[in-house]
Design brief:
The chain is of the alpha+beta class. It is built from 2 helices and 6 strands.
Amino acid sequence: MRKLYVGNLSFRATEKDLRTWFTQAGVAVTNITLLRDRLSGEPRGFGFVEVNSDEEADRAIRALNGQDFMGRNIVVNEARPPREGVGRPSRGGRRDW
């Protein structure tokens, strides 16, 4: 299983829209996660798509990266692992910001 980053999405895009777009490119999708702001619930304009194989992931990147989707040129590439120390601060502890 490989995870792909999908960026520069329209804020109107839904999981269903993205699944349809990938399927039209001949890519079978196993899971889609579109990220939303924790406080407002508004879309953040990016997400992740999981596919079953390296071949599917490569096909998606070649076919879809830089293409128009809902009026925007989309970025599709391999997702990087999360960086350490990024995200919510731990409870307790002092913050100097």
